[in-house]
Write a structure and sequence with these properties.
Structural class: alpha/beta
CATH superfamily of the largest domain: Glutaconate Coenzyme A-transferase
Helix content: 25-40%
Mean pLDDT: 95
Number of strands: 29
Number of domains: 2
Length: 519
């Protein structure tokens, strides 16, 4: 067996030296990124005088623009209602292209089977994405892809596109409405999904931009999220997406007693922090506990006559309800997670569509996440150094996404992780996470149903919370021991020496690698 030479980064993760050198990667050093001067790149532009870009044949567009070895991109705003991805990939596979790099904003379950087929046929040999789940995550975790996947946060993807690390040759972007010139948005049509925030990077920087839509309207279509000066082709399709699978109406609140208890404790943490004052800002997730936090926070804001300056992130109906009530002044919207939030964007001018760079790029002139007071995030695992894993399960298999986790954690003044002590027979609080995605230096508070652990570096928060009746403060080491006592010590996972995925930090440095799971 060959000896694998490794490097160690600043969160004590061993990184294979050969992979790091071959891919010209640098190890993670710190969440403090400084103030570098960055040179932006620009797309190749084909000058167009005519404004009717509607073409009949998607196949002809692919033939005339795609070559072996190129990079193609898609967005994930349609989620599991996406019809565009498989429609394009069917043709690319049929036409026999090879060695393509797939660079979507993220991957959803509806794409998995087609990607696996493309990998097996040599059509796709590289992937960079925010995450992957299901059969594709299992396939990659067991060595199915030729080269390591690169996982990037939403802010890091924007950064990588803007500085040329990800060079998109052809972007295929599904939209619910467009005019013949390519002015498009996500707010109108049959398959409304709201903000086009992640696709806006592709539209701005890809050499060729192909819109797919089932709804072409007279020129000019406004508001225009994607603009005609960015678009090369508009392809009419029968149906671009299934609106019933994009998102439901009002997102359901959890009824799980454990999640409700966690949500109540999170609200106590926020209300008793130094940041809960008029004009504070926050980001919540879309899970059951996070949505319950929004409900409890609403009541606390009413009780204390407090209005938030803005909410940001993946937006849900409960968040836009706060906007409608006047409890939140602005919503900075990069993605909508349900139909209620998506429909609201067309009706409320204070729900501002933002792109991924504006949201979270660490190398621009100021991202929205840098103005966050409170960020509430989840975790698959968190360890006693407060490092968080949102990428791999307790079996080592890829089943998550970086998303905006690293970005909002780094930007917020107080980052709260919500997690049950155990899930099933697996501990959530562990001595060492399987995969470090967000470094512990960015995490301030962990809230579980068994108590609240505050990062020792935040003595100010420890002092504030220790005075709160009913709020149980415990060390994260004690939480880990409680979890271990409940579920026992798991057998160590077995991996091969082969690297199947690289997890970048938001500045492009490598915070961890994921090894192939042994069968």
């Amino acid at each position: 067996m060959r000896r694998v030479i490794t490097l160690e980064n600043n969160v004590k993760r061993e990184l294979p030296e050969d992979v790091m050198n071959d891919m010209k990667l640098k190890p993670f050093a710190s969440s403090e990124l400084g103030h570098p001067e960055i040179q932006r790149t620009a797309p190749v532009v084909r000058v167009t005088t005519g404004q009717n870009k509607v073409v009949d044949s998607l196949e002809e567009v692919i033939k005339s623009n795609l070559k072996d070895g190129m990079t193609i991109s898609f967005h994930h705003h349609f989620r599991n209602g996406d019809f565009a991805f498989n429609k394009v990939m069917d043709l690319i596979i049929k036409l026999g292209y090879k060695d393509l790099t797939l660079a979507p904003s993220s991957l959803t379950g509806v794409m998995n089977d087609k990607i696996i087929e493309a990998i097996k046929k040599g059509v796709i040999t590289n992937i960079t994405s925010s995450g992957m789940r299901g059969s594709l995550g299992d396939f990659v975790s067991h060595g199915g892809l030729k080269n390591p996947v690169i996982f990037r946060s939403h802010g890091n993807r924007a950064r990588s596109i803007e500085n040329g690390e990800i060079k998109i040759d052809v972007a295929f972007l599904g939209v619910p409405i467009s005019d013949p010139a390519g002015n498009a948005n996500g707010q109108e049509g049959n398959a409304v999904f709201g903000s086009l925030g992640y696709a806006l990077m592709d539209a701005q920087y890809a050499d060729k931009v192909v819109l797919l839509t089932d709804n072409i309207v007279p020129y000019p279509n406004t508001p225009a999220s994607i603009k005609q000066d960015q678009v090369d082709y508009v392809v009419k399709v029968d149906q671009i997406g299934d609106p019933d699978k994009i998102g439901s109406g009002a997102t359901r609140f959890t009824k799980d007693p454990k999640e409700l208890k966690i949500a109540q404790m999170v609200n106590q943490v926020i209300v008793n922090s130094p940041y809960f004052k008029d004009g504070f800002s926050f980001q919540t997730g879309s899970g059951g506990a996070a949505l319950a936090v929004t409900r409890y926070l609403r009541q606390s804001m009413l009780d204390n006559n407090i209005t938030a300056s803005f909410a940001v992130g993946g937006i849900t109906k409960p968040t836009v309800d706060l906007l409608e009530e006047g409890l939140v002044r602005k919503v900075m919207d990069v993605q909508d997670f349900d139909k209620g939030a998506a429909l609201s964007m067309a009706q409320n001018r204070n729900q501002q569509e933002i792109d991924a760079s504006w949201y979270a790029d660490p190398h621009n002139k100021g991202a929205v996440v840098n103005n966050l007071d409170v960020s509430i995030l989840s975790a698959l695992q968190i360890d006693t150094n407060f490092n968080v894993n949102v990428m791999t399960g307790s079996d080592g298999v890829i089943r998550g996404a970086v998303g905006g986790h690293q970005d909002s954690a780094a930007g917020a003044k107080m980052t709260i992780i919500t997690a049950p002590l155990v899930r099933g027979r697996n501990a959530t609080v562990v001595p060492s996470v399987e995969t470090v995605v967000t470094p512990g230096e960015s995490i301030d508070v962990l809230v579980t149903e068994r108590g609240v652990a505050v990062n020792p570096k935040r003595q100010d928060l420890i002092d504030a919370f220790s005075k709160v009746p009913g709020l149980t403060l415990v060390s994260i080491e004690d939480l880990q021991k409680m979890a271990e006592k409940q579920v026992g010590v798991p057998k160590p996972l077995e991996y091969t020496d082969r690297t199947v995925a690289i997890v970048e930090y938001r500045d492009g440095s490598v915070i961890d690698v994921i090894k192939e799971v042994k069968d």
